[in-house]
Design brief:
The protein is of the alpha/beta class.
């Protein structure tokens, strides 16, 4: 899953980026509101971690513009505000502007990762924290996969790809869309990287789990869900 972090404090932003990458996310980090606005207008993100006290454009204005675009496109990008502004009025204003969650600094990295997992899960229409499709079970929190109740070893990118497909079971995802979810800016992406990861997943799990829709993309059928 690809996450946008918007934080102007260099040390804190670097720590958040490192922590989320360790949790398996691809992370883009912006240090001001204008850069964040540009990123959000051009890139699809599974969720956003947004500071409020940003240079050039406030976090609330970034959020307002994002929600205005979401209305036009019928999209809903989950936003978690992460800020030192901790009054009740601050929380009310942030949530009423369109934030899905609100955390106050200082914070625990594990809690931030858990809240992001919940936001991403709800945005995909999932309720249970454990994803299950055709005998495959994926636990985002424990970062583990079981098939027929046996552990399956996956690389970080294989896990992220399987996670994206399971969250979107029943939907066809193009190669470009999957690449956008798996890789942050600056990551090296080879032309056939998604195909290679799909091949590995089919080999480690079973071939019929992921269907190729020729000329369109890849599908994990919803009707196989347990």
């Amino acid at each position: 899953m690809r996450i946008l972090v918007v934080e102007d404090d260099a040390l804190l932003g670097d720590a958040i980026q490192a922590g989320l990458r360790q949790s398996g996310y691809a992370v883009d980090w912006m240090k001001d509101g204008v850069s964040a606005e540009q990123a959000l207008s051009t890139e699809p993100y599974a969720a956003v971690v947004l500071d409020l006290g940003l240079p050039r454009l406030s976090g609330l204005e970034v959020l307002h513009r994002l929600r205005s675009r979401n209305i036009q496109t019928n999209a809903q990008t989950p936003v978690l505000i992460l800020t030192a502004m901790d009054t009740v009025d601050d929380r009310i204003k942030g949530l009423d502007t369109g934030a899905d969650d609100y955390m106050v600094k200082p914070f625990d990295m594990g809690e931030l990762a858990a809240r992001l997992r919940a936001l991403v899960r709800r945005a995909s229409g999932k309720i249970a924290p454990l994803l299950q499709v055709s005998g495959v079970k994926l636990d985002p929190a424990a970062h583990c996969v079981l098939y027929q109740d046996k552990s399956v070893e996956l690389s970080a990118k294989e896990f992220a790809l399987l996670h994206a497909l399971m969250l979107n079971s029943g939907k066809v995802l193009s190669r470009a869309r999957l690449e956008e979810q798996l890789y942050a800016w600056g990551d090296e992406v080879e032309s056939n990287t998604v195909e290679v990861h799909i091949h590995h997943l089919r080999r480690k799990l079973f071939p019929e789990l992921i269907e190729t829709i020729r000329g369109v993309g890849y599908l994990m059928p919803r009707d196989k869900a347990i």
